Amino acid sequence: MPQKTVNQTTDNLYSESQDNAFLGYPSSPGLISTADPDFEEPSEPVAKISTPEKPAAKPSPKTKPKRSNLETLLVGLDLGTNTTCVQIAELGAETVEASALIPTVVGYARPGILPDVLPGNQTTFFGEEAIAHKLHLDLVQPLKDGVIDDLEAVRDFLGYVKERIGDSEDTEYRAVIGTPANADPQAKENIRLAITQLFDKVILIPEPFLAALGSRKESTNVDPITNSIFVDIGAGSSDVCLIQGYYPSSDDQISFAFAGDAVDRIIQKSILGKYPDCRISLSKCREIKETYSFVNGSKNSVLAPVMIHGKVKRLEVADAIDTACSALLEKIYQAVRTLIMRADPDSIPSLLENIIITGGGSMIPGFDEGLESLLLEEGFEGCKVTCVGESYKSRVAAGALIAAHQADERQWQNLLR
Ligand SMILES: Nc1ncnc2c1ncn2[C@@H]1O[C@H](COP(=O)(O)OP(=O)(O)OP(=O)(O)O)[C@@H](O)[C@H]1O
Ligand SMILES: [Mg+2]
Prior knowledge:
Elements: E1 72-79, E2 83-90, E3 98-103, E4 106-109, E5 124-126, H1 127-132, E6 137-140, E7 143-144, E8 147-148, H2 151-165, E9 172-179, H3 185-195, E10 201-206, H4 207-213, E11 228-233, E12 238-243, E13 253-256, H5 260-274, H6 282-292, E14 303-308, E15 311-316, H7 318-342, H8 348-352, E16 355-358, H9 367-377, E17 385-387, H10 392-406, E18 413-414
Parallel strand pairs: 1-9, 9-10, 11-16, 16-17
Antiparallel strand pairs: 1-2, 2-3, 4-5, 4-6, 7-8, 10-18, 11-12, 12-13, 14-15
Helix pairs in contact: 2-3, 4-10, 5-6, 5-7, 7-9
The structure holds adenosine-5'-triphosphate and magnesium ion.
Adenosine-5'-triphosphate (ATP) is lined by residues 80-83, 143, 146, 234-237, 259-261, 286, 289-290, 293, 359-361, 363-364.
């Protein structure tokens, strides 16, 4: 196993001693969220704070699930740009008590909306409900490129998540939350600000590491925590992580803001270039991608039905999809290649057999073979790339819940209630 250097500059809660290993793996302390008492608010916060026009969030009228006599509830949270997955379990319990997937979107009632247009005259909607009423709402996506972009909206959204899992005064809520690989201190601080007064304790862990933890049971190959490269292709960011039996250091992780949303933008630009009058929306491009995506010129023609000026026309979109999805494949290949080269040479043969792709981008047909071919062409023989399939949606949250169970008492960071 290669020797990992331990960065002691970030805080003094962790040291290089085995005693302070994280979750049983020798840790790289800079990557674990800590109390960060010296954190200074930058003059220009990254996240947008309130917009005056927005009506205040009102709790959803849904009945709150009742919890009784519970002391501690563990929460595994994957706060995604596109979809949030939350799983909960009681401290010490073997089973996952509940799991939910919620589109990460908040809808605020448009000013001047007439009475009884929106159900219950609510001013704020979340997830599926917000999407269902989007005609009369200002839809806000609180995250962009994998990180918080609108702090007020994300607080409203997480308030709703908390309500869904059952808000109780008597319960201590401990959340493990995924962050993009190598998230900067401001991005982490924004998560802490977003959950303050909602959760009591938190640990932040890179998403691909959590995805690996959450994939241990499903794996039929070498245990992904022992030796793997995990690739998480989301909507806002792609995260690639080398995992070799220890908690990943910053050198083991590569993250970039090129993922599903960027693919949609390229598809849109390309279709608009070819059909300038079609006024195709980004959401339509996303739908086209999710229906027809492929890589490496494996389809010659894709005729997608698109509504133009009220009439359905079939547009040839194969070239647009190919350009966009193959650009993503190339970027992922470059990142995987970089991490293979950084690995201990003796570990590489079994590492190459354990390259795992998760996140919505893993649903692109042929992405695994495409990556394998690029690696083979480069001379990495014996590669095996696996896509996790539909279950990608809950891998990070499942890993977060496992991490919550494994965490030591002192590894939790306290938040104000
Ligand atoms: N069948 C499919 N083919 C291609 N792309 C798909 C498919 N299904 C989902 N996607 C894309 O996957 C992305 C969403 O993935 P995911 O749910 O992992 O993102 P996220 O976790 O919300 O985002 P992030 O991790 O960046 O914060 C979207 O861009 C979506 O269009
Ligand atoms: Mg994600």
